[in-house]
Give the backbone structure.
Amino acid sequence: MKKSLGTGGIIIAVLVLVLIWGISAYNQLVGSEESVSKTWSQVENVYQRRLDLIPNLIKTVQGAADYEKSTLQAVIEARSKASSIQLNAENMSQEQLQAFTQAQDELGSAVSRLMLTIERYPELKANQNFLELQSQLEGTENRITVERQKYNQVVGNFNTQVRRFPKNIIASMFGFEKKAYFEASAGAEQAPAVDFNF
């Protein structure tokens, strides 16, 4: 003779299944949040690489471009500002990420202006140290773009999990919140003006 579970047994079985699902959903959210943190660390890593290259670039340029002190000073100040902003992927707001991005964009712009200015110094353009630093900076800018894209992709996956039903119930119970995306800088939709007058 078969024994039936009865109403109490069915309720317990359903509760056990819900508990197992809840644990699984929580663990998936934790894993996704860790992926966001790991990817953010790589974004910081490539930005730090740029920050580390700039002092060497400035030292190389200073000797040859004595007349461009204001341009060099702009790079130094932009680097200082960019390095002063520290973010944590765990609790980063969109406003904090925008401030970080703006400071990094200002640094990139200052370095770009410096590179344009250097066009007037043939002896510097022929300097092997400068050429190597220029190549490393260009490579680093490409890495920054790639890492920002990877970060946005991982954040998108996490944010989807946090918002999608029924996992959003677990997310709200345990305080998992949407993460901020990198967004285009203000004015990025307009083509930059090219000015060959130094």
User: Anything to note?
Assistant: The longest helix spans residues 6-64. The domain at 10-173 is CATH 1.20.1440.20 (de novo design (two linked rop proteins)). The mean pLDDT is 84. The radius of gyration is 25 Å.
